[in-house]
Amino acid sequence: MTDDDHILTIRIGHDELVIRQRYQVLSIVNDVLIGIWFLIGSFMFFSDKWVFTGTCLFVLGSVEMLIRPIIRLIRHVHLQKIHGPETPTADSTYDF
């Protein structure tokens, strides 16, 4: 596997956005969003009229906390597929 397998390049006009290790970047972005939702939701609990919206942000943050292990699992499965055998043979063994 080359380093190019870990790079996502998005062309924007004359510029390029290069993302290396995209699953790690996705996980970091998810963690930042979790922090934002919980922080804003916490401030909303200071006012009675914002409690419902704050609760919704806490639920959103909780859903994203469930997304975190899913991202790690997808990354692991993706890496296994890349490193795994191309076609299994009759005498191939797999460890689970």
UniProtKB/TrEMBL annotation:
Q: Which UniProt keywords apply?
A: Membrane, Transmembrane, Transmembrane helix
For this protein, the parts annotated as crossing the membrane are: 25-46, 52-71
- Residues of the YrhK domain: 21-77
Protein's name according to its UniProt entry: YrhK family protein
Q: Which organism is it from?
A: Brevibacterium koreense
